[in-house]
């Protein structure tokens, strides 16, 4: 039982996944700090002086009825920043690596496959044999 668990943990995919989770959470903290400390004040500056942030109060004097558009805009910016980094740091290099690997496999297959003229001559020979 412990051997199976050890094999599972030492498999490359699990370690890569653990590293990705740690790096992803650290990057999410950076993006959250950026949006909370830089983007939120910029969005809040668009609001009025009576209301804190970009939004409006449904019932005056009741803080729970504040509709905060700034929080939605901030969440969208967070998502777009994280998605862009994941795409450009993880997806694009993996696609590039995958295409390089597949082109290498195609090249190896082409080298081991007989030439087109040999295949054509073999087909002609086989057809001639069946006509006799």
From TrEMBL:
Residue intervals passing through the bilayer: 12-34, 69-92
Keyword Transcription: no
Alphabetic keyword roster: Cell membrane, Ion channel, Ion transport, Membrane, Transmembrane, Transmembrane helix, Transport
GO CC term (a single one): plasma membrane
UniProt keyword annotation of Membrane present: yes
Domain of life of the source: Bacteria
Subcellular location: Cell membrane; Membrane
A molecular function (GO) term: mechanosensitive monoatomic ion channel activity
One Pfam match: MscL
Membrane-topology annotation of the record: Multi-pass membrane protein
HAMAP family listed in its UniProt record: MscL
Family: Belongs to the MscL family.
Subunit relationships: Homopentamer.
PANTHER family: LARGE-CONDUCTANCE MECHANOSENSITIVE CHANNEL (PTHR30266:SF2), MECHANOSENSITIVE CHANNEL MSCL (PTHR30266)
Function summary: Channel that opens in response to stretch forces in the membrane lipid bilayer. May participate in the regulation of osmotic pressure changes within the cell.
Protein name: Large-conductance mechanosensitive channel
Gene symbol of the encoding locus: mscL
């Amino acid at each position: 039982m412990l051997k199976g668990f050890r094999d599972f943990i030492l498999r490359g995919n699990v370690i890569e996944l653990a590293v990705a989770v740690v790096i992803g959470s650290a990057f999410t903290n950076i993006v959250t700090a950026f949006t909370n400390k830089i983007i939120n004040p910029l969005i809040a500056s668009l609001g009025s002086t009576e209301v804190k942030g970009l939004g409006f109060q449904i019932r005056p004097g009741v803080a729970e009825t504040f509709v905060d558009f700034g929080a939605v805009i901030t969440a969208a910016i967070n998502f777009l920043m994280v998605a862009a980094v994941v795409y450009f740091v993880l997806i694009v290099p993996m696609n590039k690596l995958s295409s390089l690997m597949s082109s290498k496999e195609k090249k190896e297959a082409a080298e081991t496959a007989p030439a087109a003229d040999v295949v054509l001559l073999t087909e002609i020979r086989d057809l001639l044999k069946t006509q006799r």
